[in-house]
Amino acid sequence: MTERGQFFSSFNARALNPDQVAATFVPSEQFARLCQRRHTIVLGPRGSGKTTLLKMLQQPALECWTHSDANRYVDMVDFTGVFIATDISWGEQLASLGYGQLDSETQQLLATASFTTHVLRSVSIAMRNRVRPASDLVRREFRRTKLAEERESSLVKQIASLWYLEGIVPTLPGLQHGLTRRLGFLRELASKEVFLGDSGRGERLAEIPFLHLHFLQSSSSAIEAFDYAIGQDGAKWGLLFDELEIAPKSIQASLMSSLRSVDDRFLFKLALNPFTDNSRFLAKPTSPAPDQDFEQIALWYAEKRDALEFCDGLWGEVTQSLGLGELSPLQVFGKSQFDSYPDDRDGSGTAYGPGSRWSRKFISLTDKDPSFRQYLAGRGINPRRLLEHSGTERAAEIRKIAPIVAIRDFFLRKDEDKQTASLRSRKALALYAGAESVFAITEGNPRWFLGLMRSMLGSLDVKASLASGRIVPPARQGEEMLKSAQRFSATLRTIPVERSNAGTTLGVLSLVRKIGAYFNDQAVRQPFRPEPPGSFTVDANSSEALISALGQALNAGAIVYVPDDDGQLILASLRGKRFRLSYLLAPLYEFPIRLGASISLGTIIQRTRSEVSHSGQESLFEETDDANA
Amino acid sequence: MMQTPKSLIVAELSRTWKRTRYDLFLAAIGYEERSRYIAEAIDVTAESKHAIGFYEQREQAYEDNLHWFGSNGYETHIVDDASFRSKVSEAMDSAATQRGDGTLTVLVDISSLSRFRLATIIDLLQGGLPQISLTVHFVYSLAEYNPPSNANAQNSHVGPMLRSNFAGWWVEPDRGITAIVGLGYEPDKALGAVEHLQAADIWTFTPRSKISEYSRALEIANESLLSTVERAHQLKYNVHEPFSLFVTLESLVYGVMQRQNPVLLPFGPKLFALCCLLVACVHRDIAVWRVSAQEQEPAINRKASGYVYGLVTIFSPNDMLVTPATVHPESLQSGTVAS
Q1: Is some CB atom of chain B closer than 8 A to the CB atom of A17?
Q2: Averaged over B44-51, what is the pLDDT?
Q3: Among A254, A526, A556, B297, which is most buried by a count of CB atoms within 10 Å?
Q4: CA distance B186 to chain A (A)
Q5: How far is A244 from A555, CA to CA, in rounded Å?
Q6: Selected residues 51-90 of chain A with any CB under 8 Å from a CB in chain B
Q7: For residues A236 and A227, what is the distance between their CA atoms, to the nearest angstrom?
Q8: Which residues of chain A carry a pLDDT beneath 50?
């Protein structure tokens, strides 16, 4: 595989080996916090990089990492990482053990034993990595140890005894293989139990000792034996649980309570969706408390500027992998329609001088949008003399409304006959082009970022164009962003909904579509306002069906939590909380990339776009065609 | 009760199947005219004929189909999905008792079966009637082209074909998922499923049939997904060659299993879903999923095109579990898969 291929294949870390993850990993402030000797909960929607971060704490990843800052971060890690992978298909399998024909107690016992076996297998892999390099690409040794053959054999026999494993080759790979076999046996056991029926089941299962192992105690006793064998008593081990929601409930409960009652040997690094029922484990007065007992790391960015730094880091890897040299994002994508840049400024130091692109947008909108004219007049702002307002509060106001001016100017056209404005049939392809918009639309989500960069920059004609000093055409940028949004919509459409007793359902995509249409309406179609709504607050009386759909949207990354001042990131409830739509959806629903004012979600739900256009409230703009269909 | 799975042989359906005397014929009463096409056109000879209808979506051609089956010597039943298994099981038990020699020859028209019901039948054949050797002819009537529905029904199930089966089992859960996808013409439905699974690798199977309109619709519906799939992973299959499809699919699954965890996602013609389920009978560790709005799916009255294809399967009693290790590539070449 080419270097480029390797780089872009890394946007789904789930299937990659630790050395493959390390080959392209770009450190972040979040990774620095994760390296600390603290229990940590990493929160983020799908694709936000949770798996990558956890995988990077494994020994083989740290040994193979080539980034220029790698040594600094590696020095911060003083534990052995044990990565415990999970995915939804494995979750379905645990739930299906026994073909739905076992009593729930037996099913849970077998599911928990399977998960425990998986954890112990992961521990055995981490031990093996301590002794034998897992890759040929080692740059530095990290927590490597030596274990003589006889000593390894004796250690493995001891661990096998603790874990009730028989008939294995007494080596660390043999231990791993024995646990792989045990996983196969557990499925057979479940099938057999269905066949044998309820009678005598309790006795049969009681006599299988490994079914009753506790995953933490069993890990702890084996690790104690390992540390003793290598002469490093009391060393730290980090248990890195990916997608913890998928684990059996008893395992989740045990891990969450472990954040407080500490086995000195373990650090827990748990990856969770932003909205999960794990919050109930943290709701009691005696529960572990954020900041005191564990650190919370959020992998989302409520404000677009916060994502830019992370995207800049990834950008360096993109240009290097594609052979684009030192090209800046601005040189590749050009200026965003929503932002001002240093070279927009004239001799007087502002970007709003006569003839500037911002001045042209203000004048253009004034000519065709009576509501904007009215607004400016009311505020005493002359669009042809924006400079007169420099250095004052009014200048700040001009900067603040500029993005709304941009989007309205893009979509509205003057209707000479009716002395009003109308929507023009224009796709938002070019509107969201430009460096800062492109980065904002990826939300600092590595999978989205790399996917979009691959589609925009991967072709030879684009590289040739860049080599001759031209930017990627705005329409091409827009087209690729629209495709990304459509792909994301397909994912949202797939998310299954539970049918309520009343038979009512609310799909994630239809909810998101309503919100997007509302924000578009408020920013573009309704009379000009300096700060139209761009975020929403969930009403206290929202139905359970709505909360469920919102939770799914949040975990999928379709909506983004805007945290309160109290810094609580693990949400016990969505009610009363503020969110915005993912900017990835902006090219699809054509809303501004800005947080905007907050409005109650109930208001949005009640006033879908069709209701808005048919309501008694007069809309300023006559719709000439369905530009947003 | 769940029984020890049987061994399975899969073979091509001979042209003489229409002259076969079956012990049992199972048809579905659906909302599309196609439901009764095979029954009506072939005049199937069977000791016992059952047509099983759905509780929901009794619209379009449903009443006509119900009336036709009822008037032409079929026992008709209207059952919900929860009762479907027991109804089929009863029909098989009864036919086996009547036959009385430890064998049973069954014809199943899968054209209007839901994927859930198709999976239920395979599950039953695999684990039910422990002492009976079942020869089952599956037949499928290809529909005339209808454009895909624009209705966006909300999915209520994304997961294993049955809650109780086809979830598979990973002995190495840390491996990546390979999605093996049969493409259908619902826009971006396959894409959404692949993204939902977060598959690390993707193989696609695009159906080719004698009805050319499907090809263009398939291209449009899956353009976005296919743009991300390696060319070498984009396979085509002929709807009129289901046995060849089964062999290809089984070989691919066997290969993928050596390094990743395969999840099969059968969209498109039900013959593809049938082949996936049969492959899962051979390789019990793989997963077969369905993505469905269930009774909320738009009811389109599809008409038969006149093309009928099928497969022969033999489910035989076997004390041994069917495991991947017992499948030999050379046996595939001879046209069978045996345990």
Answers
A1: no
A2: 96
A3: A556
A4: 11
A5: 13
A6: 83, 85-90
A7: 10
A8: 1-10, 609, 612-629
Spell out the alpha helix ranges (H) of A132-242: 149-162, 172-196, 201-206, 215-230
Query: ∠A368-A370-A372 over CA atoms, to 5°?
Result: 90
Query: Cα dihedral angle (A238, A241, A247, A251), rounded to 10 degrees?
Result: 20
The model scores a pTM over 0.80: yes
Q: What is the pLDDT of residue A470?
A: 87
Order of strands, sheet of B177-182, starting from the edge strand that comes earlier in the sequence: B157-160, B287-292, B261-266, B177-182, B201-208, B234-238
- Interchain proximity A495–B158, CB inside 8 Å: yes
Give the DSSP per-residue string, A184-205.
HHHHHHHHHHHHH-STTHHHHH
Q: In percent, how much of chain B has pLDDT > 90?
A: 76
Q: How far apart are CA A17 and CA B69, in angstroms?
A: 57
A181/B171 touch (CB, cutoff 8 Å), yes or no: yes
Q: Are B92 and B120 in contact (CB under 8 A)?
A: no
DSSP B194-216: HHHHT-SEEEEEEEE-S-THHHH
Question: Residue B338: its pLDDT value, please?
Answer: 35
Joined tokens for residue A341: 């840049």
- Specify the 3-state DSSP secondary structure of A265: coil
Report pLDDT digits (tens) over B143-184. Answer: 999 888 777 677 888 999 998 899 999 999 999 999 999 999
**Joined tokens for residue A161:** 């005894």
Which residues contact residue A364 at a Cβ distance below 8 angstroms, ignoring those fewer than 6 apart? Answer: A409
Asked whether this complex has an ipTM greater than 0.85, the answer is: yes
Is some CB atom of chain B closer than 8 A to the CB atom of A510?
A: yes
